[in-house]
Amino acid sequence: MDWYTQQEVADMLGISKATVYHWGKQKKIIKIPDPYRTIRETRYQRAEVDAIARELKTQPKGLPPSKVAKKLGVSVQKIYKLIQEGTIKASEVPVGDERKTYVISAVELEQAEKLLTPSRDDRPTRSEFYDSRNGVALFQKFYSSKISEARITRNEQNDWGFLIQSNQKWIPYEEGVKVYQLVPSYPIHADPVEFKGYVTFEIPSDIIWFYSFMDYLYQVWGMENIRLRVLQDGSIKLLVRAGEKRLTSNQAFSISDILPFLMDGEIIKDDELFILRSSYRKTTVELPKKMLKQVIDAAEKEGISMSLWLEHLIEKNINKED
Hints:
Helices cover 34% and strands 23% of the residues. By secondary structure, the chain is α+β, with helices and mostly antiparallel strands. It folds into 5 domains: 1-58, Multidrug-efflux Transporter Regulator, Chain: A, Domain 2; 62-122, Multidrug-efflux Transporter Regulator, Chain: A, Domain 2 (Orthogonal Bundle); 125-140 and 185-282, no CATH class; 141-184, no CATH class; 289-321.
């Protein structure tokens, strides 16, 4: 064969399938044309991929972002984001003409582990994005005969209100309802899905499809299955419960749009299903009653959940063996 599949390229170069996809779009890796779509998988020229792989072997030692992400249980996009921010130091490695990848040393990997471990239980609270008094949520869409689109936001004093899209004017919630007769464009409640962990995104709020994504999540998943926090840089930390729901026909975003902002977990599109999988997998541990009481007490003392306390204990012992 004179070609590799997308997964084979990812495995050979130590990058994610998403990175292979983006390199193909940017023509950094040449895809084999298939105008009639007779082949199910995208194919890439074997000779070129082999040349890139040989070049990588001469570069500094360490782990590529994809393997670091797998080891730490987060998405490769999160690792790239931390590298670009300078939070994780990595050696930039050229790969062919105008291509580059990164290598993370064992020392930097250890620092990354310390950085990421405490943040896993740092989830937004409902009060951060949901106003229970008025039953509204951040970025929820409203409208009236006077205003075609307004979004629920908070001002600098943390008051709830509306941002009118046409003129970017902010008005208090009571004024929007009483003076402008603003009403919700859709209901935001749904039954909670069975808890199997969260999938995490960090998305710039000014990206063109952000509101469409939020409309979809509120309408289809419901605010019961979402957690949301506005970060200091204005971007949005968004946690969605792992599960599966149908995509709608009128959404203005695609899976490829949101994929670069996936920080933790996995996204799968299966026909018209939008499937989210957490990086965590549920397991059962049986303990003697006396030991269970000791674990519960130890977790409470540290102010964390029993599951997280056990996770930290296991990680410490695994690291000792390494």
